[in-house]
Amino acid sequence: MADIRKRIGAKGTTYQVRYPSKATKSGYAYASFDTRKEALAFREDARARDRATAHCKTDIKTISQGLDQWLKICEKEGRNGREPVTRYTLKNYKYRAGIIKSYPWTKELHELTKPDIIDFRSWLLENHSRYLANKSLTSLHSMIKELNSRGILRYDIAEGVTVSLTSRYDNPVSIPTEREIHDLLSASDRLANSKNAQIQKTWERYRPILYLAVDSGMRPQEYLALAEYGLQDTGVEIDRAIEGGGTEITVTKTKAGRRFIDLSSHTLDMICHYVENHMMENDYDLIFPSRNGRWQNVKNWRRRGFNRACEEAGLMVADKPKYKPYDLRHFYASMLIDQRVNLKRIQSLMGHRNIQTTLNVYGHLIERVEAQAQERTSVLTVMNRN
Question: Cα–Cα distance between 290 and 103 in angstroms, integer?
């Protein structure tokens, strides 16, 4: 049973909690706090954990065993009723699991408390990038929640412990202007009508890809994986994407990624013309396959297609393209916002799983548009009207 002892030392008064632990030779572990309130909260957490542990019959005793079980579930069953993760995602999960296992855990899984997870977070931030710390902590929490749902754990020791990736110094997304988009599309028109036969043939394919990217706001890995069956009378149906590592085509990462997007008649006619006259037969039903019949490499498209169009359009800064293919997606979103499209509709068209993502990325644009729409009046002006 855990007890609290008051200690008075050179650094002042502290409160020490002694609690049972199988990880130490004495059978007890200790935790010190500046206030009795914190010590009491820790002791109550320990009691709740002990009650939960008493009902949990499992062979999983350590963080390492818990991670192995979680990885097995991700690969074979899928978490929380979802489909099993792709090989690329599993590879990333295993890498993060390796980082978590490398931390010197001194307690068994059922003995861990929130302060232990906070200590782990500090270790992550000291030894890894903030991005990797965020991903590793997220994977640990995912494991804990999975084990909670299966009755292996009944206490969410990581609840509320996060690593934020946002910063007030973060740069806003880079968004091309309408004039720049017009110049970019005009550049693709010129390249597709080049007198050089090789350039013309190359841009027979790249031109409709560029128009599609601008007109749909799709991610590069989505429009390069677009299937012919996804081509509809008024737009495109999106239900798959190139996996992050470029090794395979899979369903979209989330259910929200599966969506229908209307296209302009000009873009739709251009794509249909390409399908009818230039599309190469392939085993993946790709509209824009590479010469070997597989999907195009995203990096190759950026280097040989998009960057070349930027160069032709004069959109270069210090001999580098001013924008990236993903910035066309931001342009699409900015146009929706300028047209006062409903926020939920924007979320749907962008394929965001939750509306918070939409707000995090484009909130500043929404605020700008809303501010422009408001009548600009001073307090004194309003007073003088009355």
Answer: 44
Structure tokens at 110: 């059922």
- Among 325, 346, 362, residue at a domain's last position: 325
Alpha carbons 296 and 281: distance in angstroms, whole number: 14
Determine contact, residues 258/252, Cβ cutoff 8 Å: yes
CB-CB contact of 290 with 242 (8 Å): no
> Does 215 share its domain with 242?
yes
How far apart are the C-alpha atoms of 19 and 49, rounded to whole Å? 12
What pLDDT, in 10s, does the model give residues 235-267?
999 999 998 778 889 888 778 889 999 999 999
The residue type of 370 is: E
For the chain, how many structural domains are there in total? 3
pTM: 0.66
Q: Tell me, what DSSP letter sits at residue 93?
A: H
pLDDT in tens, 362-383: 877 777 776 665 555 455 554 5
The pLDDT assigned to 238 comes to: 95
Q: Are residues 45 and 69 in the same domain?
A: no
